[in-house]
Amino acid sequence: MKLNIRVSRKAGSQSLTKQITTQLGNLIDTGALAVHSVIPSERTLADAVGVARNVVRHSYEYLLQSGHIERDGARGRRVKAKRRATAASSKAQAALGAKNKTNRGKSAQAKSASGKQKAPRRASRATAKKRA
User: Cα(114)–Cα(23) distance, rounded to whole angstroms?
Assistant: First the structure.
């Protein structure tokens, strides 16, 4: 099966994961990928597109969450039958968008926001006697 998926590595473009997720979702929604057809393995698609395997893995996870595909045990992943509700798709897209936003410096802010440092532990009485 030949999938026509292309990614852009230009600065300012969407993440590779989002690009692959969007393109696969469109192929499924338009019927280019038939219902119950097996989609390529992570390794096969990653090699074909020229990205790391974990990029494809995350794309497949988003498509699983949105209800586009389903796991079929050792047989791989298949295109799922038509979805009834579109809420799952919008939730997955929102999660993908939220994950791709940069959160630099947030952990440092969170650490300084607490403003508390742990007090050093006091030695037990037995240890204090030994030291004396």
Answer: 43
